[in-house]
Amino acid sequence: MLSPDTRSDEEGPVPVASSNPSSAVRLREILSSIKADKGAMVGFVIVAIFVIVALAEFVAQSTGFLLAPYNPIKTNVGPQYAAPSLAHLMGTDNLGRDVFSRIITATPNDLGVSFTVIIFALCVGAIVGSYAAFHGGILDEALMRVTDIFFAIPALVLAMSIALALGPGITNMTVALMIIWWPPYARLARGEALKIAHQNYIEAARLSGAGRSKIILRHVLPNISLTLLVYASLDIGTVILVYAGLSYLGLGIKPPYPDWGQMVSAYQDFMLSYPWLPFFPGLIIALGVIGFSLLGDGLKNTLTS
Amino acid sequence: MNTASFILRRLFLGIFVLLGVVTITFILAHSLGGNPVYAWLGRTASSHPQLVQLYTEKYHLNDPLYIQYYYYITGLLQGNLGYSPAKGFIPVSQVIVETFPYTLQIAFFAIVISIVLGVVLGVVSARFHHGPIDKSIRAFYLAGISSPAFFIALILLIVFTYFFHLLPTGNAADPSLLTPKPITYIPMLDSIIEGDYAYFASSIQHVILPSLSLALGTFGVVVRVLRSSMLDIMRSNYVRTARAKGLKENTVFFKHGLRNAMISVVTLSSFIVTWLITGTIFVENIFSYPGMGEYVFTALIVQDYPGILATTIIFAVIIVISNLVADILYVVVDPQIRLG
C-alpha cells in the first residue's frame, strides 16, 4: 500500500522548524498557507465534507435518527437497478436499496477505522520510538529489527492473516490494523528523537535531574509531534485504502450493513449492465484518499518551508 | 566497509527478517485457539475427524511449542508448506509453482509500464514544472495513486472489454490454445522458446489490462520522486557548471539531470513491489487471471489457512529479495553512497 514517505514531494522525514511559537499562532499560519495553496484547499474541503458527514451520521446512528434520504438496509425503497436520478442520486441496487444512503451510512465506519488506527499508531509509535532512542542498546536494536520484519510483509497481507486468526468484523479488522500500523511511526519517532537527543535543552533537563520518562514526556514528544502529525495526515488515506481492500475481501462489516469496499465487491457482478453500481462506492474511496493526501501534502509543504 | 561485506550484512539481515516473518506466521497459526489443524483444514475438519488426528500426529501438535516450531521451520526449509483445502488438498508448494509464473508475468509488465510511464511523465513534469502540463500530470497520478486497485481494474475492464471490445479478459491466454511445455515454467517465455507465437500474442493481449491496472497505481510515485529529484539536481552546482560551459539545455537536462535523478527511482523498488503484490490479489481476481493473487483470493474465501500463511511467507521472500537487489543496485550505481 501507499507508504507516505514516498507519496510526498520530498524524500525522507520532514525537518520541522525548531522555533516554537505559541500553538495558536502556528495554527493560524498553517490555515492561511493552506488557503493560499489551491491543492491543499481542495483537499481541506473534501476532508471537511467527509468528516462532517461522518460525524453527523455517527450522531444520527447513535440517536436512531435517519440522516440519509432512505433507510440503507431496507430493500425496495425504490425500483431495482434504477439509474442515478434526483430521487436516487447514485441509483438503486439489485435489492432496490438506495446506493447514496448506503454510502453515507458507511462513512463513519471507514473514517472511524482510519482515525482509530492512526491515533493508536501515533501514540504507541511516538512513545516506543523515543524511548528506544533514549534508552539505546538492546531495546533500540530489538525495535529496529522488529520494524524490519513488519516492513517485509505488505500491510494488507499481514492484516489478512491476522484477520483470519481473529475472524472477520470491523472491530477485529481495526485491531489487526492497529497491530501492524505502529512500526513505521516508532521508526520515524526514533529518528526524530535521535536528532534532538543532544540539543542543549535536553542536556539542561538532564542536568537538572529530570528522569528519562520526564524528558521524553516533557521535551521530546512535544518537539517531534509535528513531524509525526504530518506523516500521519499523509497516512490516513493509506489506512482508508487498506481497509477498503480488507472490506472488499469480505473481512469487514458483514452485509446487509454497508461498507465502501464491500459494496464494490457486491456490485461488481452487475457492472456490465449497471456500471454505476460499483463505480460510486469506488469513487468515494478514491475521493476520500485524494482529499487526505492533498491536505497532507499541503500541511507538509507549509511545515517544511 | 567495502561492498562485499555490505552485501553480506544485508543478506544476513534479510535472513533474519525472513525468520521473523516465519515466526509471526507460526504464532498466527497457533493463536487460533486449540488445534491449528482445524484452521489448516478449515471446514473439512469437522467432517473428517480422522484427518485431524492424522495431522496432529504428523505435525507433532501434542509436543511442546518449541518442538513444534522446530518442525515448522524444518518443514518450511524442505518446501513443505502444508496442503491446500482450496485446491483439493494438493501441496501448497505445488499450487505456488503453478500460479507464481503467471503473477511474475503480470508483475513484469506492470513494472515496465509504470517505470516507462513514470519516467516520461516525471521528465515532462520537471521540464515544465508549475505549468498547466505539470498540474494535469499531478492530477492524473494522484487519481491513480489514490484509487484502490480493484476500482482501477473494474474501470479498465468495463471500458476496454465491454464498451470497446478491444481486449480479452479471463485466463492467461485464449483457452483454446495449449499452454506451452514448461521449460522455464513461465508460459510467455516458453512460448517464445518453442516458437508458439499464437500463444505468445494471446498471452500478451491477456496481460495488458491486469498489468496496466497495477501500473496506474504505482507510476505516480515514480513521477513524484523523479520530478522532485530532477528539480533539486537542476538547481545544483554541477548543472550550473554544465550550463556555464555552454551546453544546450536539453543536453544538460537529460545527461546531467535525468541520469542522476534515476538513482532516486531505485529506492522506490520496495514500495512498488509491495504495492504490486497487494494489487495482484484484487486485479487477478477481477480479470480471472490464474496467478498467485487469484489463489490468495480463493484461499481467503474458503479459509485455506496453509495457503494464506505460505503466500505471506512467499510475499515476504519476494520483498526481502527485491530490497536486497535495490540496496546492491543503489551502491553500484552511486559510488557516493556511504555504506553502513
Note down, in words, how this protein is organized.
Chain A is an all-alpha fold. Chain A has a single domain, classed as MetI-like (MetI-like fold, Orthogonal Bundle). Chain A has helices at residues 4-7, 23-36, 38-63, 99-135, 137-151, 155-166, 170-196, 200-207, 212-248, 260-267, 276-304. In chain A, helix 4 packs parallel to helix 7 (170-196). Chain A is elongated and about 75 Å long. Chain A starts with a helix and ends with a helix. The model of chain A is unreliable at 1-19 (pLDDT under 50). Chain B has 340 residues and is an all-alpha fold. Chain B folds into 2 domains: 3-92, no CATH class; 98-333, MetI-like fold. In chain B, 75% of the residues lie in helices and 1% in strands. Chain B has 15 helices and 2 strands. Chain B has a two-stranded antiparallel ribbon. In chain B, a hairpin with a 5-residue loop joins strand 1 (83-84) and strand 2. The model of chain B has no long low-confidence stretch (mean pLDDT 85).
Structure in a nutshell:
Chain A is mostly helical and 305 residues long. Chain A contains eleven helices and no strands. In chain B, a hairpin with a 5-residue loop joins strand 1 and strand 2 (90-91).
The CATH topology of the largest domain in chain B is given as MetI-like fold
Task: Give the overall shape of chain A, derived from the CA principal axes.
Answer: elongated
What's the assembly state of these chains? heterodimer
Number of helices of chain B: 15
Taken together, the total number of domains of chain A comes to: 1
Query: CATH superfamily name of the largest domain in chain B?
Result: MetI-like
CATH class annotation of the largest domain in chain B = Mainly Alpha
